[in-house]
UniProtKB/TrEMBL annotation:
InterPro entries: 23BDH (IPR014007), NAD(P)-bd_dom_sf (IPR036291), Sc_DH/Rdtase_CS (IPR020904), SDR (IPR050259), SDR_fam (IPR002347)
Function (record text): Catalyzes the irreversible reduction of 2,3-butanediol to (S)-acetoin in the presence of NADH.
NCBIfam families linked: 23BDH, PRK07231.1
Highest taxon of the lineage: Bacteria
Family as reported in the entry's similarity comment: Belongs to the short-chain dehydrogenases/reductases (SDR) family.
Lineage, highest ranks first: Bacteria, Bacillati, Bacillota, Bacilli, Bacillales
EC nos: 1.1.1.304
The organism of origin for this protein: Cytobacillus stercorigallinarum
Protein name: diacetyl reductase [(S)-acetoin forming]
Length: 260
């Protein structure tokens, strides 16, 4: 294995936090595989990154399919010969009162946020074991993995499950020198929060567009909402040798919102 040319996969990286994470890891010197289900946006991001001089390839797939997570890892290894970091970033949201949670919502959110993360951990870990190298797996959790939010019940439950799988995978995979951690962002202005705000406003006649986002953000002690680069900074650290002695942790990066 070539320690000069480390390779990272970032799922859900056509936009939002995943794109910022992929760009930061590229600047850290990683060869990057960007992955997303949104092919148009994915190709745009790949083109933009290539123009910036990053060593990047793209793979369109659905993280909720076990076989496609395996194919993603195989693709990375075919392109770059090895895998060092796998970031399970892809995720989806849903906003409803508890009494309106239905089968479709449960299936969609658990399939992508939870099953997708499990399949990603498995595919990456099997590759690290085959390579006989250390490896780092980093999952997208959330403040909602530490605290359960009204109107975000299913989403919060999926992020609690991600925290749980992060712990158990860290325990079981430690013997292979695989670190498994998670990042827990707070409130970042991505497409996800645009959708959450839009839905929350629909359910509350006292809210105007932008109010739900402002309400959540107003509790942040450092006085500003999260930028994608704040999240990328943490993922960069968790991907580095400096994080070698950290495993099983779901680390908050939220500007002072949830205290654990
Ligand atoms: N934005 C926030 O404030 C915030 C806070 C805490 C945690 N998070 C978590 O961070 C991660 C990224 O969030 P974001 O705000 O960038 O979201 P986003 O919606 O802006 O981007 C998510 C990306 O994932 C992709 N995706 C969705 N389903 C997919 C699938 N089945 N397979 C592959 N790709 C898929 C989307 O196409 C999109 O490009 C998510 O896991 C989210 O839960 C976000
Ligand atoms: C979207 C998210 O995870 C938090 C609730 O901001």
């Amino acid at each position: 294995m070539n320690s000069e040319n480390k390779v990272a996969i970032v799922t859900g990286s056509a936009g939002g936090l995943g794109k910022a994470i992929a760009e930061r890891l590229a600047n850290d010197g990683f060869n990057i595989v960007v992955q997303d289900i949104n092919n148009d946006l994915l190709l745009e991001t790949e083109k933009e990154f290539k123009e910036k001089g990053y060593n990047v390839v793209s793979f369109k797939s659905d993280v909720s399919k076990q076989k496609e997570q395996e194919e993603l890892v195989n693709f990375a290894v075919k392109e770059f010969n090895q895998l060092d970091v796998f970031v399970n970033n892809a995720g989806v949201d849903a906003v409803t009162p508890f009494l309106e949670i239905d089968e479709n919502q449960l299936n969609k959110l658990f399939n992508i946020n939870v099953f997708g993360t499990v399949y990603g951990i498995q595919a990456a870990a099997k590759q690290f074991i085959k390579q006989n190298t250390k490896g780092k797996i980093i999952n997208a959790c959330s403040i909602a993995g530490h605290e359960s939010y009204e109107m975000l019940g299913t989403y919060s439950a999926t992020k609690h499950a991600v925290r749980s799988y992060t712990q158990v995978a860290a325990k079981e995979l430690a013997k292979y020198k695989i670190n498994v951690n998670a990042y827990c962002p707070g409130v970042a202005k991505t497409k996800m929060w645009e959708r959450i705000d839009e839905e929350m406003v629909k359910y509350d006649e006292n809210l105007n567009p932008g109010d739900a986002f402002e309400e959540f953000s107003s509790a942040i002690k450092l006085g500003r909402y999260q930028e994608p680069k704040d999240v990328a900074n943490l993922v960069s650290f968790l991907s580095s040798e400096d994080a070698e002695y950290i495993t099983g942790q779901s680390i908050l990066t939220d500007g002072g919102l949830v205290y654990r």
